[in-house]
């Protein structure tokens, strides 16, 4: 596969290492200093793009890839208020797009456990639920994209919770997400269900960025030749 790597920071470099190990070619490594590679003439030489940049730049980067009609695998967090715009264009113009707030296999299994636990807890009013995410101090967004995914999964299943809030919450109908920033922390997510008599806590701890990067390359391999909107659930057969 010829890959246009959009974003050559911590994740871009981790993805490059795994893609090369698996025999793929990195055609372009795009960062703020060589954005000319985002032009159609360059991008259309790649089989697909893997995009891990910043909350402010992801939307435009994905549109550029659509202009060049190449599939995009994106993991950038903090821009999801614009996701529907991308989905609409993808549907209207028959493009190819795969987004995941977290590409690791472990977190995608953790998502399924979180959903099952939340469904069971809907009838158990005595339990309150809280979340915590811990990341490195360079992270730009809070709460993490993964924490938002976990929170949305709970909100869809637990009728006594109406919305998530980032920080301390006093209202019973709010789902509190605490964000901690400390180094080194590739990404830890905890969901705690507490009652007066006991707690149930589930935690996923990433030991490095390897799981995210490996999942993104697997998603890129899987998406080749497909058209439409996909998620890691499709890649992992969890649908
Ligand atoms: N979905 C998942 O599994 C995961 C998602 N993430 C998310 O991925 C994103 C990137 O994370 P990370 O690699 O740690 O961040 P870094 O800050 O290390 O890297 C971001 C990179 O994007 C580049 N960049 C900024 N603007 C543009 C632009 N307009 N065009 C092209 N490149 C640009 C930066 O360039 P320069 O160096 O020149 O500033 C830098 O190379 C974040 O949103 C993070 O939350 C992270 C881990 C896993
Ligand atoms: O910025 C990071 O590092 C990470 N971002 C993603 C997120 O916001 O959930 C995934 C992972 O936790 C690491």
General description of the model:
The chain has 239 residues and is α/β, with parallel strands linked by helices. The protein has 2 domains: 2-103 and 210-236, Rossmann fold (3-Layer(aba) Sandwich); 105-205, 2-Layer Sandwich (Dihydrodipicolinate Reductase, domain 2). It is built from 8 helices and 11 strands. It has helices at residues 10-21, 40-43, 58-67, 83-93, 105-121, 145-157, 210-223, 232-236; strands at 2-6, 25-30, 48-51, 72-74, 96-99, 128-135, 163-166, 174-181, 188-194, 199-205, 228-230. The strands form 2 sheets. The chain has a 6-stranded parallel sheet with strand order 2-1-3-4-5-11, sandwiched between helices. β1, α1 and β2 (25-30) form a beta-alpha-beta unit. α1 crosses α7, α3 (58-67) runs parallel beside α4 (83-93) and α5 packs parallel to α6 (145-157). The longest helix has 17 residues, at 105-121. The mean pLDDT is 97. It binds NADPH dihydro-nicotinamide-adenine-dinucleotide phosphate and the ligand O=C(O)C1=N[C@H](C(=O)O)C[C@H](O)C1.
């Amino acid at each position: 596969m010829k890959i246009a790597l959009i974003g050559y920071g911590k994740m871009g470099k981790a993805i490059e290492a795994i893609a090369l190990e698996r025999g793929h070619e990195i055609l372009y490594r795009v960062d703020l200093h060589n954005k000319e590679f985002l032009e159609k003439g360059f991008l259309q030489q790649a089989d697909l793009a893997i995009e891990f940049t910043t909350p402010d730049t992801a939307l435009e980067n994905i549109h550029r890839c659509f202009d060049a009609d190449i599939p995009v695998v994106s993991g950038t967090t903090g821009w999801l208020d614009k996701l529907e715009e991308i989905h609409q264009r993808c549907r209207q113009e028959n493009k190819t797009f795969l987004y995941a707030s977290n590409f690791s296999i472990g977190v995608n299994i953790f998502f399924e456990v979180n959903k099952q636990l939340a469904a069971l807890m809907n009838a158990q009013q005595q339990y309150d639920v809280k979340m915590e995410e811990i990341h490195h101090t360079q992270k730009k967004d809070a709460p993490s994209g993964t924490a938002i995914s976990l929170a949305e999964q709970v909100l869809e299943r637990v009728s006594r919770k109406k919305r998530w809030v980032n920080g301390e919450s006093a209202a019973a109908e709010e789902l509190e997400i605490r964000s901690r920033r400390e180094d080194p922390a590739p990404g830890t997510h905890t969901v705690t269900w507490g009652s007066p008599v006991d707690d149930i806590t589930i935690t996923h701890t990433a030991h490095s960025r390897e799981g995210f990067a490996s999942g993104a390359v697997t998603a890129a391999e899987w998406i080749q030749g497909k058209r439409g909107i996909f998620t890691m659930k499709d890649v992992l057969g969890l649908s």
